[in-house]
Amino acid sequence: MAIIETKQLTKHYILGKKKVVVGLENVDLEINQGEIFGILGPNGSGKTTCLKLLLGILFPTSGEANIMGKPPYDIEMKQHVGFLPENPYYYDYLNGPELLRFYASLYSMDSDKADKRIEELLELVELKDAKRLALRHYSKGMLERIGLAASLINDPEILILDEPTTGLDPIGCRDTRNLLLRLKEQGKTILLSSHFLSEVERVCDRIAIFHRGHLLATGTLDGLNKQYQAENLEDLFVKTICAFDTEFAAKTGERK
Amino acid sequence: MKKMWLIGVNTFRESIRKKTLYIILIFALIVIGASKLFSFLTAEEELKMIKDVSFSAIEFFGALIAIFASLAAISTEIERRTIYTLLTKPIRRSDFVIGKFFGVSMIIFVNFILATAFFIGLLIFKKSPPNMDVFKTLLLIFFELILIGGITLALGTFTSDAFNIICSFFLYIVGHLTSYGKQLIERTENIIVKGLADMLYTLVPNYENFNIRDKIVVGLNVSWGYVGYTIAYGILYMCVALFIALYFFEKREI
Description:
The structure holds 2 protein chains of 2 kinds. In chain A, 41% of the residues lie in helices and 26% in strands. Chain A is α/β, with parallel strands linked by helices. Chain A is globular. The N and C termini of chain A lie far apart (44 Å). Chain B is an all-alpha fold. Chain B has one domain (2-251). Helix content of chain B is 80%, strand content 0%. In chain B, helix 6 (93-125) runs antiparallel to helix 11 (224-251). Chain B starts with a helix and ends with a helix. Classes of the chains: A alpha/beta, B mainly alpha. The A-B interface holds A 52, 55-59, 75-76, 78-79, 81, 83, 85, 87-94, 98, 102-103, 105-108, 134, 147, 150 and B 2-3, 6-7, 10, 13-14, 17-18, 80-82, 84-92, 251, 253-254.
């Protein structure tokens, strides 16, 4: 059953009077409950746009996006969703526990439950020793980890992660990977976007490849490898992108 | 309502930990304290000078605090992208805007109270405890500061940091000159210029309405009716600014 769904989701950015940039074009996606779904694509392919549309940070030009059957602005739906943005920035003058307590309060968590959850999460992301440190003194990796903790504060059913391993060292990447697999075992649905093909290959049940705002392929890795006669994810990635670029160049050439 | 309050408290907490606002407050206190240096004047003139300089310092440095705090509340939050983590929580965009306004108002209030306490302490030290006229002046300054904060916040919902700061200072300066401008324009016979001036006069907040210090310092009386009318004007203008903020922020893509 699809817990996250987009139908003909389109986003055009209007730059100036005549220039329109395609952020996303007629994207149909269905993400099932309990799976880890990876969105792959080069820079500017529409990965983050897709996540932002799902979360109501951007508004679609046409089409629709739903999470748990609810539109992106639905408050009740957001109660069950956790989000980690790319290169997260937080309030510089708060420390880790203060940040998590603030977010917990926005989910209307009671104080005792929040305190317990904060302790668990700081332990989980190994930031217990940095409790008193203001976030402005955090390294990039520490910010990524506190961001991950923040996205889990409400024990969400759906976790949306934009480039969750950016800035993490290899051990941090491994820990995040293991955490995602543990969360999946708990029945959580995870939607992540990433540049790191190997990470995606190891954790995702299904993937989607985006390029120039278009959804090029979606399915299980094995299924897509067979379909595109690819040896691995990297090969699949390059083949789909190159095929699209060739087709795109031919089309734009025709138009000219 | 609870979420607005939580956002407001977080805005206030972040702000009081930054050094920028303290520096502005310290400057205000230094200027207020420096007004005592005019001891070569007669006692009466010295008291007038203390009041005049202190009212001006509380208003001017308060305006700086209001503008910078409001700027950080929405514009900076958007530019630094911390807003992504907030708007994906179960809050409405209106909770965010009103919450930020609460937070900025708290910052303005605390800084205003500290500067005012210092000023009143100085008056008491000079054996001239504040009378009701002093409180009327301070009350109007406070509402002016809240209005400045509200307008900067509203501008932040649809402009960049840089544009907002320029606009806010422009409005602050022009808002103090509109009355003079209107007097000058009334002498012109050009209908277009007159129409434009009237439009500007209506649109730009008239901060000079809140300025009664010149009258109070020289001992003229300002009625409670005028104070009440000006506060009502400030509240009405602030409501319009917040309405504009809500309208634009609901539609804003981040």
